[in-house]
Amino acid sequence: MADEEQGPAPEQAQEQPQPAAEATAAAEVRPAARPRPGQAPAVPAGQREPPKPEAEALAADLAQAWEGIAFEQRFNFSDLEVTIAPQDVLEACRRCKGDSRLSFDWLMCLSGVDCETHFEVVYHLYSYRDHRRLTIRARLEDRDNPAVASVVSVWKGADWHEREAAEMFGIDFPGHPNLTPLLLEEGVEERPLLKSQPLVPIFADRPGVVQQPEGVP
Amino acid sequence: MITERRLDTVDMHINVGPQHPATHGVFRMVLRVDGERIVDCVPYIGYLHRGFEKLAENEEFQEVIIHLDRTDYIAQFNNEFCYLMAVEKLLGVKPPERAEYARIILAELNRIVSHLMFYGAFGGDAGAITPFLYAFRERERLQRLFESVSGARLMHFYFRAGGLKEDLPEGFLEEVRRILPVLKQGIDECDTLLTENEVFLSRTVGIGAISAQEAIDYGCTGPILRACGVREDVRRSDPYSLYPTLDFDVPVGKKGDTFDRYLVRVQEMRESIRIVEQCLDRIPEGPFRTPIPRYPHYRVDPGEVYVHTENPRGDYGIYLISRGGVQPFRVKLRSPCFCNLMALPAMLRDAYVADAVMVLGSLDIVLGEVDR
Amino acid sequence: MIGVLKGLVQTWKTHWRKPVTVQYPDERLPLQPRYMGFPGLIWDQAIGEPFCTGCQVCMRYCPTQCMYVTMQDNPKQAAGESKRRKIVETFTIDISRCISCAICVEVCNFDAIEMTHAHERAGYYPDVVPDLPQLLKMSEDFRAQRGQKPARETRDVL
Fold first, then answer.
1. N or C terminus: which one in chain A shows less Cβ crowding within 10 Å?
2. The CA-based dihedral angle spanning residues B169, B173, B174, B179, taken in that order and rounded to the nearest 10 degrees
3. Distance from CA of B123 to the nearest CA of A (A)
4. C-alpha–C-alpha distance, residues B61 and B79, integer Å
């Protein structure tokens, strides 16, 4: 432990400016985390690995199968990632599952992300036939009424994932058969995973014991 | 003379849980039954929700591991493994070979521990107490090994970005080598105790079957999916770490029923032993951690990554977003039980009420991971 | 029927095995050397003060927020006996909340805290909140148990 331990090093004071918003996720090169003087700018983390041949083949298939759907693509950790508009999500997902060139039969994960300026719903797909992965990212620019069509009709496994995203972020999924709260207790109005929602520290509520002073995270 | 009269019947609702030993935690389901047959099942979860994802956003990358141990609290090493692969991908470091092998050994032993837990609890669900004692006798050997490695029996907090917390203790590998034959024998004993038992067979064979198509549609993974005959294992199909170099089989079932799920898990334990044996032969001496600047308060490059690994319960995925800095921006946990549990209503349709407990037990849910 | 009989033969064989369990309060299984119980504070015997300077880093990183630490000026530094300018004033750990995760050991810059083997600490409320002298004693007992000298030389062992 002692060998790498540096203690409170002085250079920790220079905070990295947080990238405020990621405009056009496809082309943006975000600032590297640890720029050191005299060092070449680091490659973004996702570009360190070259794209897999399967991912490149998938990009070609996708361009054909997704005719009429506008999307931006980039390679992230050797896998393909596409960004689409929320109104195209249902059609894109239908083709992803139904089209014989793609046949993504498994929705691995569906996650909502609060990017502070907008919301994102990220679909991680997997094809058991071809053993390849695809990430679909839907950008919900409308922060007040975020909504994206439900994909439960495509994959039944999206059901609880969407319910979770709905209660945690307030994203609406029109077309979902039963969009009721899943994990939180009834009557919770807050959206816990929003970045604007602070994490309330647990304080010792017993008298006289381990009282935390103010300002301690 | 008897004339048949039509009786007016109503569906009855039966509430099971949340505090019920057969639900393996705090899980509640409402069964709608018509006589003895289940018409519909509505699962309710969230009783153990601790807000892991929110907590993780407010803590450093290193501290998140502590909470990960507490998601799937029967397969802790596997959880840590998955998360740290995500962090290492973003950091751009690779753990040294010794650490990789140590991780695989511990993860596979943890898989055996988890499956033994399933075996014991499943026997209990079927009404047999003896398997529980046999499983826990074998499990205890491994728990003591884990204690000697990490200092904790359950919440290990042992894997670190770039390797391990500290080197494997002296004599650990010899101890594993000594225990493996004993363990093998113990698993065989468990096997003879239950697998051919007619009472057990009558309670499991053909119960809660689900087709492969449906299982994939619901996002079932792990032993549930493999029991349906889909030879799908993340260690094989999307290999990570050093698994491509290791030789092991992926056992599959045929019918996708409760018994096949049980059998797949028993066979998986044997495969895990095979993997550990190979790792023991190959594990080299050397460093146990790649140095990372400012460890343990390291900064992680901005980016996002989705990593999934094969946990005992299925495909465990971590979607990690970093915006640079010491804290993750978003951690989404794709927990296998969460997705397997979604298929429960489909499995229970037209089953008997008494089988509901068996089907739920065969899913091997850990509520800490379902609710996060 | 045969399957049931096979199982019965198995249990009959097991009947003659030596039991693996122990009678807990009378006998105890040995703890592993790395066992993590509750944390204790290490005493610096060379100077006669704790290693802890009360920097509160453990308090900040504690996931259950079970610690409370305050710092004071070190009187021994003024007297020229110690190099530490600051020293711990109070240190309490609510071990009913402690989860023995050892993050405090990991983040400590002075290697002043360690995981002892103390784990049988059930009790009523004020008893489960050791203060500074009790924490120091926990570590000292632990080291005496393991036959280690509670001195500076043993620091690098941990």
1. C
2. 110
3. 29
4. 14
CA distance C104 to B269: 36
Range of the domain at C22: 2-157
The CATH number of B51-371 is 1.10.645.10
In a domain, residue A214? The reply is no
A185 domain residue, yes or no: no
Across the interface, of C60, C66, C67, the residue whose CB is closest to A217 is C60
Residue numbers of the domain that contains A163:
45-169
CB of B89 within 8 Å of a chain A CB? The answer is yes
Least CB–CB distance from B90: residue in A1, A45, A156: A45
Please choose, from the candidates B170, B139, B9, B156, the residue with its C-alpha nearest in 3D space to the C-alpha of residue B77.
B156
pLDDT digits (tens, 9 = 90+) for B143-172: 888 988 888 888 888 888 888 888 888 888
Q: What is the mean pLDDT of residues C103-113?
A: 86
CATH of the domain at A97: 3.30.460.80
The predicted structure's pLDDT at residue B115:
92
* A183 lies in some domain: no
Rg, Å, chain C Cα set: 22
**Please, what is the angle between helix B258-282 and helix B353-363, to 10°?**
20
Nearest-CA distance from A198 to chain C in Å?
Answer: 16
- The count of domains in chain A is 1
Q: What is the pLDDT of residue C151?
A: 44
Length of chain A: 217
